[in-house]
Amino acid sequence: MLPNTGKLAGCTLFITGASRGIGKAIALKAAKDGANIVIAAKTAEPHPTLPGTIYTAAAEIEAAGGKALPCVVNVREEQQIIHAVEKAVKTFGGIDILVNNASAISLTGTLETETKKVNLMMDVNVRGTYLTSKTCLPHLRKSRNPHILNLSPPMNLNPMWFKNHCAYTISKYGMSMCVLGMAEEFKGEVAVNALWPKTAIHTAAMDMLGGSGIEKQCRKTDILADAAYCILTKPKSFTGNFIIDEDLLREEGVKDFDVYAIAPGHPLMPDFFLDVETDTTSMGQGKHEEKKLSGSQPKGPDAAKVNRESAAAKPLSPVAETFRVIQGAMSEEYVRTTQGVFQFELSGDEGGTWYIDLKTKGGSAGFGKPPVTADVVMSMSSADFVKMFTGKLKPTLAFMSGKLRIKGNMALAIKLEKMLTQLSPKL
Questions:
Q1: CATH topology of domain 12-260
Q2: Higher-pLDDT residue of 43, 321
Q3: Could you give the CA distance from residue 308 to residue 315 in angstroms, rounded to a whole number?
Q4: Architecture of the structural domain at 318-424
Q5: Could you report the per-residue pLDDT of 215-274, keeping only the tens digit for each?
Q6: H-helix or E-strand containing 342?
Q7: How far apart are CA 245 and CA 230, in angstroms?
Q8: Catalytic annotation, pick one of 55, 130, 168, 173
Q9: Residue 168 a catalytic site member
Q10: Residue 305: its H or E element
Q11: Which helix (H) or strand (E) holds 377?
């Protein structure tokens, strides 16, 4: 952990989305120095599923040693931003730091993204960041060491980061373009930088995206709080940078990153927009596993219960063998708790349409279209499918890296990941 230096004592930070998650973690780190925190967030009343309000966050900030000003701010509403900034200046005498943390996410393809979701992401991520920066800048220019910090990624134009969630990517890169433009426009006056995590961070949003158990693949919000603190205590000449949390902290001398892990030693999931090797095993191991699978043969006339056409056409393929094992593991419990039909459109060797029906009677799996309309359609290569079902490629990671495309009910897709966890020892 990065120790506090006291450099933010008396500074006023205006943080959007600070009632929970990353925004609150940055606020609490600054509060330990005795900073003033403006909590600019929407949640004034307790949310049915999300933790915390602007008032509970304010209590934590005060307890940590800071001063808090909770303000109800939806960054889609310009007047709410203006009112909160005026209140902050009146209460604390100015604004030294702006953290644009508020963000909206929908990991859906172009045809599946409703217009209201497109509007939400563009309004919160791009327009909200732009307007909050614009409103704070006249006050920031009066500060001794002013900073704007956007929680947005380096602009990686690899098409794989666009193809599965084009609207979301455009909106996050819009935040990053604000950094590019404003850093140059206000050079010498206000530092403007972007911060992004190297790995997934455990927040309420990640729980919703990844489901139960995802936290083991994540780091705590503390790593971003430490990285943000490091950036915000640098001189204003440090500007125009796209910073990855772990890389910066290594440069600052941090060696033990296990302290930031939810489950130390557990493999971590890389975050969006960073090109990394997505397979969790070496290529050699993957090939060995496929060879072992293709050598397994069904025993007994009824063992397979896989569609006859599939079994006759490709009896020894890794994909068919995987479906044979899935069929053999079917149980009423899986069907009762899942209630979903999954269709797989596989490319490459042993490609074609396959399905898992965890909704009808005792369930079934096999080649061809499912007996009833699929709730979820997943598209990927047959090689990645086998890796996913044998535990070598996490479905969440496959999706985030563009190897897996999902159409339909995302909640059911998450339920399938839970089933995979239970099945993988058998595959």
A1: Rossmann fold (3.40.50)
A2: 43
A3: 9
A4: 2-Layer Sandwich (3.30)
A5: 888 899 999 999 999 999 999 999 999 999 999 999 999 999 999 999 998 878 888 898
A6: strand 340-347
A7: 10
A8: 168
A9: yes
A10: none
A11: strand 376-381
